[in-house]
Design goal:
18% strand; 182 residues; five-stranded antiparallel β-sheet; two-stranded antiparallel ribbon; single chain
């Protein structure tokens, strides 16, 4: 009678440690990439919506008044957590509603794409040539007539030292970005 050998099925400790090490390496690579892509996605979605709305309102303002309207940064600073954008559209603010009590031509009547955001938006306008590359890292040359550009500063990673900055203008509505993912 042939003797049956007892074989134990399973994995050795070394095999298990090897698998755990591979999983740890893959996680170390993919988690930061996922986090960065997630931040970029959130910023791009917000930026696209706000840049679109602000550009449309600026163009309507130009049709009505022949020039573009500059607006101070709103909110005043970027935040790594969602902050309310409703203070930007109150009466008395450049983004606010056109109401009869205000002098004509001082409001954009912005309709917020979302009531909360991470970024701060600045609108600069002018009426002639002379402004070239006003924000480091972006390409812009002002035309002979009225123009505007929008700069969004976003602190998507919670680090106040490096922020993502986005730029678009009446000359080129393509959204340019620096430090994207921060």
């Amino acid at each position: 009678m042939a003797r049956l050998r007892n074989r134990q099925a399973g994995f050795t400790l070394i095999e298990m440690m090897f698998v755990v090490a591979i999983i740890a390496v893959l996680a170390a690579i993919t988690i930061p990439l996922f986090t960065e892509n997630s931040r970029q996605g959130k910023a791009k979605a917000e930026i696209s919506a706000f840049f679109g709305e602000l550009a449309v309102r600026e163009e309507q303002y130009k049709v009505d008044r022949g020039t573009y309207l500059a607006a101070a940064a709103c909110p005043a600073a970027a935040s790594s957590t969602l902050q309310s954008m409703t203070g930007c559209v109150v009466s008395g603010q450049a983004w606010g509603p056109n109401v009869s009590a205000l002098p004509a031509g001082q409001r954009l009547n912005v309709q917020l794409p979302t009531v909360e955001g991470f970024c701060s938006y600045l609108i600069v306008s002018g009426t002639g040539t002379g402004t070239n590359n006003p924000v480091a890292g972006f390409t812009f040359t002002s035309p002979a007539g009225p123009w505007f550009y929008i700069v969004a500063t976003c602190d998507m990673d919670g680090s106040a030292t490096t922020n993502a900055v986005y730029f678009a203008s009446s000359v080129d509505p393509t959204i340019q970005a620096t430090n994207e993912g921060f």
